[in-house]
Amino acid sequence: MLDERAQMYLKAVAELSEEGEEATTSSIARRLDVSQPSVTEMLRRLSAKGVVSHKPRGVVQLTKQGERLATSLIRRHRLWESFLVRFLGFSWEEVHDEACRLEHATSPDLEERLAELMDDLEACPHGHVIPDKEGRASEERAMPLSEFPAPGSARVVRIRDESADFLHRLARLDITPGCILDTEGASARDGSVQVRVEGRPVELAADLARNVLVKPVEKNGGRDQPRSR
Known about the structure:
Layout: H1 4-18, H2 25-32, H3 36-48, E1 52-53, E2 61-62, H4 64-88, H5 95-103, H6 108-117, E3 143-144, E4 152-159, H7 164-172, E5 180-186, E6 193-197, E7 200-204, H8 206-211, E8 212-220, E9 223-226
Antiparallel strand pairs: 1-2, 3-8, 4-5, 4-8, 5-6, 6-7, 8-9
């Protein structure tokens, strides 16, 4: 049985992989805001328990057992986020930390009850796909807004950074998963990106643009339609 701290490391490895980033000692340390020596020590423990595979200065990979545990944590986390927004009136910037606490105290039976209650949802409030009972999840292809070619129209697919401060900044700009952004270009000076949200001009700072993942859309009969994958 892994303690809560060890579970957070497993989940961090899985989330980095999900985002297309290599899970290394340094990337895990940044993700969890801990020191690299702390990561090295934890990886040694997790490797001894057979849930990760790791060589010094190499990429960390989950074993089959580690992948099952991490996917279950991610599923519980996203189910709780959805539950808190839908039934308890939490805002999307409040739910990440609450879900982090709840995911570790959720039994398999409670997890399935939550899944049944939220069975019409495919993604959490931040746009991340909720894995099914078998651990299957297929994230929609998307790119950072900072890399999106302008001019053009983009649909917000998901938000990479789920910290409360980051989400609060986006909420003030009315930028959430599903909204359409008309891009006008990036500033060579500071990397900020100019967009229009429902016709209103908005400037996204560089850190916001890097963490808002979008997908191109096409105009079809006056309506925005996602392009095929």
